[in-house]
Design a protein that fits this description.
Chain lengths: ~500, ~450
């Protein structure tokens, strides 16, 4: 591509960045993001941090504030060693789903990289967080900072009062059940009026500087319900305890006969954070696809306007190309589908289908093939889908051919793997369905639910694992998780496997 | 709305608390590895711990974060892969070992897949774990009589003081500010005025107008000069003096005497064991004192003070008279290390061979001259690799050992042990420095 003959000066010329240059570049990016692409973003708070601080942020699942736990220290120790010995680079950026939208840029980046990173994170990811329905419905971008601060202080206060070991025991157990600590389908039951009152007390406690802990221990967090449940028959129990219940942490928090109120609150904290992060797990392809598409569009636009030097443009393109590389299945570098590659390719493809549709595209995508406003089509896609449904709706035969996708069927009863579909006319729909399926977390993560807990009888907690396609739980670690579960429940726990077909 | 925030000046180490929790949890495993690494460490590398820290690899047991996962084997699955080249529907492939495609990926994402976990301990963390539970004998007692000197520390500026404490920069800065504020006439403006006056006065005949100007100029001159007198170049108000406050400076210093027999019977193996012992002692003391010195004394039938290199790597031949080394140590203490200023430690390594009845003299030297001024004295006897009998029976031994046993009976800050292989060093070192029961304090002699 050739730079247009415009009078525009390059935004910057050297590799060194300054706050003035960042400001100038950001303004130029914002102009394109808002006025050309029509993005809608939270206010940006861009923070420049050192490599050391990036490592800190890494180890705490990228959140700006986090309670303390040894596993974050473990990840820090490992990441730090890998980084110092040069075996692992650091991410160029971290971005947080919050309002204002916080993104971290590393001081080591060149000015060209800072520009790329701002376009990618501060506008691409930011727009996605603000507009995708999952984030809108399930996360509270404005409240997350306060909640994290509360969680950190609360757990620190618990450590002081009950000791590090007692808190660690609960956190370890809660972390083991993190993936089973989210509501996948329905919203959680509304808090009871007692709970709302207790939460209100906490807030007031903060303001008046009283001990948060005292208020919580005095609170009536669902402890009274136990008595009612005790003498109920099975069907009534199930109704009272919302059974079957997929959110194990929620169930334990509400019904464990042995947990103290402060322990329940810790479970709640772990559960809330798991739920907050859950939409990110569900939209990896889309989120990265959106951010990568946005940065790619913006840097090309800036280059066309003559506001990037050739050198800066080349540096950005080099980095972009690395990010969207998709090694083929027989390449030693292959480690599954690269969400950046797939996401970016799909975004580019949507634009292509709008601008230059083929007959095939018109047949497959009658709703938007040839739509003159590709920006709107794409914004709608970003807003209303998650990875699974997005691929199911938007993956085109064109892309299936481009990636040369094929489905390998692995049936344990057969001695060999079978190539069941390839990138041909007969295979498109199946390949697309199979790929979409592989992004469905409800399918990827084990489906384990509480089915009964007879508080009158032996108090055994009965869990059911619904086995689909004959895939059982891995034996490794299973007993460890069950031990943690037993600790939280206080009595026996059984886990039964039931085939989905029966 | 947007803003940039420079967070680089923020404290890093946000994960310090997490790291401490992690180390605490992994402590037993880490300790095992640290102990092992000391045993294996070659002293030729400088003997210590690298400044950038020590890499340790520990088993993940106790560090696992278990989760429910799907098994990677069994069942019916479909994997979508990119890059088909020649497959057509119906082709079959051999099942790869360990599950197809992404099978094992999820498990190892957390470091769970690997059996070992590698990371780097900082030097401080390493030493802390290395010396965990050890304490310096009599450290507390000595600390109370720790030498203290009175020093001074700068404590800002005052408006009164002695001329030798005058802070010229601050004083001149104040003076300049005041002169500007009060518009003190400059030397140049006065000089110009003088010139004009002189010019007019030099005229033999002045017009009336010129007389008037002169008069005016003289008046202005007078005003300026008065102002210069009132607004001084330096006013007492400008003066600033440095102040100093007296401060007690604690000197915690230690000297470690390393005494070693280097006669022919001390081979590489024996010296290597001794080295490990001295190395640990030095690392340990360096951690407790701001300043530690090492004195190396080697002996055959005569003793000499040498540098570290010579101490460990040169070899002498000749007879063995152990007391020469003790004499030398006493001499050096008298010359350079007054016991009221220094914490003195003795460490002696030998194979236990000594000349004639010299061992009795060693006993006397220790009890009368050295132990009263030493914080601690440790004797390590290096015996044959297969000297099971000596290792298991502390009562057996040659003349030197027997005499030292008598010393030990009289002085609780004297310790002795036997070693025959590197693995023994660290345990006995720990034993030397484990907290002793209170009351069993200093020498009886």
């Amino acid at each position: 591509m050739q730079a247009a003959d415009t009078v525009a000066e390059p935004l910057f010329t050297g590799p060194e960045w300054t706050f003035e240059l960042l400001e100038t570049a950001r303004d130029a990016i914002e102009d394109i993001a808002l006025n050309d692409l029509g993005l809608d973003v939270y206010p940006n708070q861009i923070e420049i941090i050192s490599a050391e601080q990036m490592l800190d942020a890494y180890s705490c699942v990228g959140l700006p504030l986090m309670y303390q736990h040894w596993s974050f220290g473990k990840h820090f120790a490992r990441d730090e060693t890998l980084y110092r010995t040069g075996r692992q680079g650091l991410a160029y950026e971290i971005v947080i789903n919050s309002n204002p939208c916080i993104s971290y840029n590393m001081e080591e980046n060149t000015m060209a990289m800072q520009t790329l990173v701002m376009a990618h994170a501060a506008f691409g990811h930011n727009h996605f967080f603000k507009n995708n329905y999952l984030f809108q419905q399930w996360t509270d971008a404005a409240g997350i900072h306060d909640y994290l601060a509360f969680a950190k202080n609360y757990i620190a206060a618990c450590e002081e009062r009950y000791g590090l070991t007692a808190v660690e025991e609960i956190l370890d157990a809660a972390h083991a059940l993190q993936s089973q600590g989210v509501f996948r389908y329905g919203r959680p039951p509304k808090p009871t009026s007692e709970e709302l009152a207790a939460m209100q007390k906490v807030r007031e406690g903060y303001e008046s500087g009283q001990s948060v802990l005292d208020l919580w221990t005095d609170a009536t967090m669902g402890q009274d319900k136990l008595e009612e449940i005790r003498d109920e028959p099975f069907s009534a129990r199930r109704k009272l305890m919302n059974l079957p219940q997929e959110n194990l942490l929620y169930f334990l928090e509400k019904h464990s006969p042995v947990l103290e109120p402060w322990q329940c609150e810790i479970l709640r904290i772990v559960r809330m954070l798991a739920q907050y992060l859950y939409p990110q797990k569900q939209t990896k392809v889309m989120n990265e696809g959106c951010a990568t598409f946005v940065h790619y569009y913006i840097i090309n636009k800036l280059f066309e306007q003559g506001r990037l030097t050739e050198g800066a443009y080349m540096e950005m393109m080099h980095s972009h190309t690395n990010v969207v590389l998709q090694p083929e299945y027989d390449d030693p570098r292959y480690s599954g589908m690269n969400p950046y590659a797939l996401g970016f390719a799909m975004m580019q493809d949507i634009r292509r289908i709008c601008e230059a549709p083929t007959d095939e595209d018109r047949e497959w995508f009658p709703d938007f093939a040839g739509d003159p406003d590709w920006r709107r089509v794409m914004r709608d896609a970003w807003a209303n889908y998650r990875d699974e449904s997005f691929i199911q709706q938007f993956l085109s035969p064109h892309l299936i051919r481009k990636f040369k996708l094929f489905t390998l069927a692995d049936d344990a009863d057969q001695s060999h793997l079978l190539v069941s579909q390839i990138h041909n006319r007969q295979g498109y729909r199946s390949v697309r369905r199979d790929l979409a399926h592989s992004y469905d977390l409800a399918y990827l993560e084990p489906d384990i639910q509480v089915t009964d807990a007879n508080l009158k009888g032996d108090r055994e907690l009965k869990l059911t694992h619904t086995v689909r396609d004959g895939i059982h739980l891995s034996e490794e670690n299973k007993d460890e998780v069950l031990k943690h579960l037993r600790r939280l429940w206080g009595y026996d726990v059984s886990l039964e496997a039931v085939d989905a077909g029966t | 709305m947007h803003h940039f925030i420079d967070r680089r000046a923020n404290p890093k180490g946000k994960s310090l608390g997490n790291r401490q929790r992690f180390l605490k949890r992994a402590r037993e495993s880490i300790k095992e590895r640290v102990d092992k690494s000391v045993k294996e460490k070659s002293i030729k590398d400088g003997g210590g711990v690298p400044a950038e820290g020590e890499k340790v690899t520990i088993p993940t047991r106790g560090l696992k974060e278990p989760r429910f996962h799907h098994s990677s084997k069994g069942g019916r699955r479909r994997h979508v892969l990119p890059g088909n080249k020649e497959f057509i529907v119906g082709d079959t492939l051999k099942r790869p070992q360990g599950g197809a495609g992404e099978g094992g990926k999820q498990a190892s994402e957390d470091g769970e897949g690997a059996d070992e976990f590698s990371f780097t301990l900082t030097r401080d963390e390493y030493l802390e774990i290395l010396f965990d539970g050890l304490e310096l004998p009599d450290l507390v007692e000595k600390a109370t009589v720790e030498t203290e000197t009175i020093g001074t520390r700068r404590a800002g500026l005052t408006t009164a003081g002695t001329p030798n404490n005058l802070n010229l920069v601050r004083t001149m800065r104040n003076s300049l500010g005041r002169r500007i504020a009060l518009q003190r006439p400059s030397v140049r403006s006065i000089a110009e005025l003088k010139e004009q006056i002189a010019e007019l006065e030099a005229l033999t005949e002045r017009t009336e107008a010129q007389d008037k100007i002169l008069e005016e100029l003289l008046h202005r001159m007078e005003v300026l000069e008065r102002k210069r007198r009132v607004v001084g170049y330096i006013d007492p108000l400008d003066l600033r003096y440095d102040t100093h406050v007296p401060e007690k400076i604690r000197n915690s210093r230690a000297v470690v005497f390393c005494l070693m027999d280097v006669s022919g019977s001390m081979q590489e193996r024996e010296k290597d064991l001794a080295k490990r012992f001295f190395m640990l002692l030095h690392l340990f003391l360096a951690r407790s004192y701001e300043h530690t010195e090492l004195v190396f004394v080697r002996h055959t039938h005569h003793a000499q003070e040498v540098d570290e290199e010579t101490f460990f790597y040169a070899r002498e031949t000749g007879g063995t008279i152990v007391s020469t080394a003790l004499d030398k140590m006493k001499e050096i203490i008298d010359e350079r290390y007054p016991p009221d200023e220094w914490n003195i430690y003795g460490a002696q390594a030998s194979d236990g061979e000594n000349f004639g009845n010299d061992s009795a003299r060693c006993k006397a030297l220790l009890l009368e001259d050295l132990l009263p001024v030493c914080q601690y004295y440790a004797y390590v006897e290096i015996v044959d690799e297969n000297a099971e009998m000596l290792l298991s029976n502390p009562e057996a031994g040659e003349d030197l050992w027997q005499n030292y046993r008598q010393v030990k009976a009289q002085a609780s800050h004297f310790e002795m042990q036997r070693v025959s292989q590197p693995a023994h060093i660290y345990p006995i070192f720990r034993e030397f420095f484990l907290p002793k029961a209170k009351g069993a304090q200093n020498a009886g002699g």
